[in-house]
Design goal:
With about 450 residues, the chain is of the alpha+beta class. The protein is built from 16 helices and 16 strands. It has 2 domains: about 325 residues, no CATH class; about 110 residues, Immunoglobulins (Immunoglobulin-like, Sandwich). It is elongated, with a radius of gyration of 32 Å.
Length: about 450
């Protein structure tokens, strides 16, 4: 694009690769622990056995979601929607209290990017060495370091993709297929796709995903207020900033506590200067706090020039952790969580669906009985084996026939049962009448499920 003077002006700034400086401190240790725990769960959970199956398995062909002792069916989709609503409320609640703390410690992009950065440090060296390597001309050593890094990245990304598919296909079967070169087309596609996405997002794009691709960065501001805990620089204490030697106090030099070392900028994974105030690029990882605290320790100044605090506190105003939006989010979350657990605990263990034979409205048997045929689907939702029988209410004198008379429901299974309901012609109501099918325990005392249907008889 040309300006009025005829000079060319770029519409977009060219990306400068960000190398975050290594820091040590409480928040860095917390982030490291979060990465280890979250990745440990992700990679290990599919290998945990549970009875005769995988503990966590989303069996799409079988239309069953196994989560340890719990099995969810398509009919339980409401629970999945419920969980997503609670997850959104939890995110709003956490953001209202502590800003983008999810982004800084638990977001998959952050977790995998941190791992890829560790691999990069292992192969290319520390902060200064990586910057120097970027500027160096291509040589055998540079090719070797970069090549080793990408080989490790690709292997780790492939393992990530393999594990992801292992949540949908039993991971041991998937491993046997991989070793035997007999993987199916879809399994191969999703392993490659998810592996490539991990390599691209966590290895190549990194902070670009957080800044430009993640919608949360754009709408997070509506959940903030002046009492939200955020990573903040204290300008009243830090300004005017300036370099100085160790020894004299800042007051003697007419300066604030900020020595303008830019360690906070160098430690930031998104490359921002936290001293410029709240910015949407900040993921609240607190790396700048650890970096600044280490500098304050070297100069003998109090820690906390950069710290978790609120805008009101920085300006010397009263701050309030408990406020209306926090109470509303927290109350809704507790109510939904309690209702979810109660609904899950009281969920009917057996579900019944009734269809009618569409080939004929009714049949008149040789003995004068009027018969309707119903294909039934009986779903046993839990891990208990059940013996049940089918009964019908609403049709006096009706006879119910199934084969066998007592039906065995295997754990977590769907069974098709053809049921014949007949009644003598003189007792058959004319036209259509309502009946209720029930699935009862073998002893007849407990009703597990029921469903209404229609019984068709002759009009005359």
């Amino acid at each position: 694009m040309n300006d009025s003077s005829g000079k060319s002006e770029a519409l977009y700034a060219r990306r400068v690769k960000i190398h975050a400086r290594e820091v040590e401190g409480f928040f860095e240790n917390l982030r490291t622990a979060a990465v280890i725990v979250l990745l440990g769960l992700y990679y290990l959970v599919p290998w945990i056995p549970w009875d005769d199956r995988q503990a966590v398995l989303f069996d799409l062909p079988g239309r069953k979601f196994h989560i340890f002792a719990l099995t969810l069916w398509p009919q339980d989709f409401v629970f999945l929607a419920w969980l997503l609503i609670m997850a959104a409320l939890l995110l709003f609640f956490a953001t209202a209290i502590a800003g983008r703390v999810w982004c800084g410690y638990a977001c998959p992009q952050t977790v995998w990017t941190q791992t890829f950065v560790w691999i990069e440090r292992l192969t290319e060296g520390n902060f200064n060495q990586r910057i120097k390597l970027d500027k160096a001309p291509w040589s055998t050593g540079k090719w070797l370091r970069r090549g080793t890094k990408h080989v490790l990245w690709v292997l780790f990304a492939a393992w990530t993709g393999f594990t992801f598919v292992g949540y949908f296909t039993p991971i041991r079967e998937l491993g046997d297929g991989l070793l035997g070169f007999s993987l199916g087309g879809w399994e191969t596609f999703w392993i490659c796709f998810y592996g490539f996405a991990t390599w691209g997002n966590a290895g190549m794009l990194r902070e670009q995903v957080c800044i430009y691709m993640c919608p949360y960065a754009r709408f997070q501001g509506v959940m903030f207020d002046r009492d939200t805990l955020i990573v903040s620089y204290d300008p009243a204490r830090g300004e005017p900033r300036g370099g100085r030697a160790r020894g004299p106090g800042p007051g003697e030099l007419g300066l604030g506590d900020c020595v303008d070392c830019r360690m906070c900028v160098q430690a930031c994974p998104t490359g921002i200067d936290i001293r410029k105030g709240l910015q949407y690029e900040c993921i609240t990882c607190a790396a700048c706090i650890d970096a600044c605290d280490s500098v304050m320790d070297r100069f003998g100044y109090p820690r906390g020039l950069i710290r978790y605090t609120t805008q009101n506190a920085v300006q010397g105003k009263a701050q309030h952790l408990v406020r209306p939006r926090v109470v509303v989010y927290g109350t809704l979350l507790l109510v939904l969580a309690a209702a979810f657990l109660a609904s899950l605990a009281w969920r009917a263990p057996v579900r019944l669906d009734v269809l009618r034979d569409r080939n004929a409205l009714y049949r008149e048997l040789a003995d004068g009985q009027i018969e309707n045929v119903y294909p039934l689907k009986i779903l046993n939702k839990d891990g208990e084996r059940r013996h049940v029988r089918i009964t019908v209410d609403g049709l006096p004198g009706a006879r119910v026939r199934t084969a066998p008379a007592t039906i065995e429901l295997a754990p977590n299974s769907l069974l098709d049962v053809v049921t014949r309901v007949s009644v003598s012609r003189d007792q058959a109501p004319p036209g259509r009448s309502d009946v209720t099918f029930r699935v009862e325990a073998e002893n007849g005392h407990t009703v597990h499920a029921e469903r209404e249907a229609r019984f068709m008889g002759p009009l005359d």
